[in-house]
């Protein structure tokens, strides 16, 4: 039987792991005014009190035009554009195109976007009503979970797409061994399992809170649990490094290598270059601001500045939601068959009665450059 000290150490390590999986840090006994979750609104109320009192400064932010008009307008655009675009993408990728590694990653990316878009009506209503949630605790937890699932699933699947294209173009002879349906399926399942594990705490921790001085109920804006900043810092560090920095570094390496390879080949590579620009643009525009602010809040010990950073972080999340509108263009430039089927569907052209190969632009480019080199 393990000594008590070892059991204590194991319990501590397990607690640390759970803290790294939750965006709310590690619950502890109520401490001083410092201990709060970085992406939450700090100093909203006294943690030692059962009554939650919203201060004037943050109430003005929650009811400002930026959160009650701008944010819901952005999410409405994402809903109106992203729903039909990703719905069409899923139909084409799942039904019309043969299952190959590239189409599988694209299908998973579209599915992540669709899950996010389906909960947007609740988010839009919440902001239009002045950050007042009317749909209950369970739906609030699910909305928060889907919101972050979209971000980190998108990051990881864009990384998978970049790696797949890297092997196809830069190491074509190794591509057969590195790429495969079973391997891609295993990787896709692994991504969903990792993200789902990270989202479990969102479904277990209370996300809504009501206040004694204002008649509103917030959803995923204020937490009722007090936390120590040490846990917060390590959580933010782990989340940003594993969920964003490492995938972004891999994407930069893969796409940089592809550009160098294309530079030595003849012919037009316009579609491949457009695809690289879309992927890098998605990371820089949609994911970098929110992840940077997410981590920076944990490092700042000033409650006033952290409240201000949270305001910017909220806007950055709205900007990040635009990835659901950008991703369909990535499908378009990645898959030749996807382009042909979209043209046939949208333009009313007659679809060719043939078995679609699911091929991407890369194999065609690879064949073309091989002929030119002979």
Description:
It contains 14 helices and 2 strands, in the order ααααααααββαααααα. A two-stranded antiparallel sheet has the order 1-2. The protein has 374 residues and is mostly helical. The chain is globular and about 65 Å long.
Question: Summarize this, please?
Answer:
This protein is mainly α and 374 residues long. It has a single domain (31-369), classed as Rhopdopsin 7-helix transmembrane proteins. It has helices at 4-20, 56-62, 65-96, 101-118, 120-128, 136-169, 172-178, 181-204, 229-263, 270-299, 303-320, 323-334, 336-347, 361-373; strands at 208-210, 217-219.
Number of beta-strand segments: 2
Give the low-pLDDT segments: 1-50, 224-229, 351-358, 361-374
CATH superfamily: Rhodopsin 7-helix transmembrane proteins
Termini separation: 69 Å
Average residue-wise pLDDT: 75
SS strand fraction: under 5%
Describe the secondary-structure layout.
Blueprint: H1 4-20, H2 56-62, H3 65-96, H4 101-118, H5 120-128, H6 136-169, H7 172-178, H8 181-204, E1 208-210, E2 217-219, H9 229-263, H10 270-299, H11 303-320, H12 323-334, H13 336-347, H14 361-373
Which features characterize this protein?
single chain, disordered N terminus, mainly alpha, disordered C terminus
């Amino acid at each position: 039987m393990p000594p008590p000290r070892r059991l204590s150490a194991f319990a501590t390590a397990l607690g640390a792991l759970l803290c790294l999986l939750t965006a709310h840090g590690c619950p502890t006994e109520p401490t001083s005014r410092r201990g709060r979750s970085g992406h939450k609104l700090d100093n909203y109320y006294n943690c030692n009190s059962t009554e939650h009192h919203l201060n004037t400064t943050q109430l003005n932010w929650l009811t400002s035009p930026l959160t009650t008009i701008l944010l819901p307008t952005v999410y409405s655009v994402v809903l109106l554009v992203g729903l039909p675009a990703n719905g069409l993408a899923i139909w084409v990728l799942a039904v019309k195109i043969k299952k190959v590694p590239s189409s599988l990653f694209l299908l998973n990316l579209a599915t992540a976007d669709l899950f996010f878009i389906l909960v947007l009506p609740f988010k839009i209503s919440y902001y239009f009503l002045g950050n007042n949630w009317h749909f209950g605790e369970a739906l609030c937890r699910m909305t928060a979970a889907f919101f972050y699932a979209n971000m980190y699933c998108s990051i990881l699947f864009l990384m998978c797409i970049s790696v797949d294209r890297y092997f196809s173009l830069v190491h074509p002879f190794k591509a057969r061994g590195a790429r495969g349906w079973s391997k891609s399926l295993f990787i896709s399942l692994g991504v969903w399992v990792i993200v789902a594990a990270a989202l479990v705490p969102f479904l277990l921790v209370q996300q809504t809170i009501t206040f004694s001085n204002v008649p509103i109920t917030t959803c995923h804006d204020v937490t009722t649990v007090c936390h120590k900043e040490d846990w917060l810092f390590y959580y933010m560090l782990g989340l940003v490094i594993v969920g964003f920095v490492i995938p972004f570094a891999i994407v930069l390496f893969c796409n940089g290598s592809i550009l160098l390879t294309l530079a030595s080949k003849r012919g037009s590579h316009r579609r491949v270059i457009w695809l690289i620009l879309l992927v890098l643009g998605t990371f820089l525009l949609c994911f970098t601001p929110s992840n940077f602010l997410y981590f920076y809040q944990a490092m700042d010990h000033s409650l006033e500045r952290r409240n201000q950073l949270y305001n910017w972080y909220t806007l950055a999340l709205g900007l990040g939601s635009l990835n659901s509108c950008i991703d369909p263009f990535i499908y378009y430039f990645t898959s030749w068959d996807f382009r042909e089927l979209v043209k046939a569907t949208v333009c009313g052209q007659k679809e060719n009665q043939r078995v679609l190969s699911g091929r991407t632009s890369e194999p065609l480019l690879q064949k073309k450059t091989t002929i030119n080199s002979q």
